[in-house]
């Protein structure tokens, strides 16, 4: 439960920085919101993993996870990120553009 509360705090406070990071990664790889296929999937997954993994490791460390628990959790997190990285990026862009009426910088 302790880990979940820390995670909730981390997710809430890092939402905007992650959006900025994702935009930057997309610009570096020259990806637009209209791009389809494997490249945007891989870039979204890379952006998600490269931003969230260090936060996740920090959360596990603060929560007192053992090395074995951390390794298992990190491997599982990487596996899940491969499935949710792109859908999460699409969802974030939808919220940004359609709900908050913010222009995407991509």
Automatic annotation (TrEMBL):
Keyword Cell membrane recorded: yes
Transmembrane segments: 74-91
Any one GO molecular function term: L-amino acid efflux transmembrane transporter activity
One Pfam family matching this protein: AlaE
Assigned keywords, A-Z: Amino-acid transport, Cell inner membrane, Cell membrane, Membrane, Transmembrane, Transmembrane helix, Transport
Cellular component terms (Gene Ontology): membrane
Protein name per UniProt: L-alanine exporter AlaE
Species of provenance: Xenorhabdus bovienii
């Amino acid at each position: 439960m302790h880990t979940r509360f820390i995670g909730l705090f981390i997710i809430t406070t890092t939402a905007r920085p992650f959006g900025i990071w994702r935009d930057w990664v997309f610009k570096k790889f020259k990806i637009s919101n209209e791009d389809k296929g494997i490249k945007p999937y891989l870039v979204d997954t890379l952006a998600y993993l490269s931003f969230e993994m260090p936060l996740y490791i920090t959360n596990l460390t603060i929560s007192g996870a053992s090395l074995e628990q951390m390794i298992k959790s990190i491997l599982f997190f990487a596996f899940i990120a491969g499935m949710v990285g792109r859908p999460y990026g699409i969802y974030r862009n939808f919220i940004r553009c359609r709900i908050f009426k913010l222009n995407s910088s991509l």
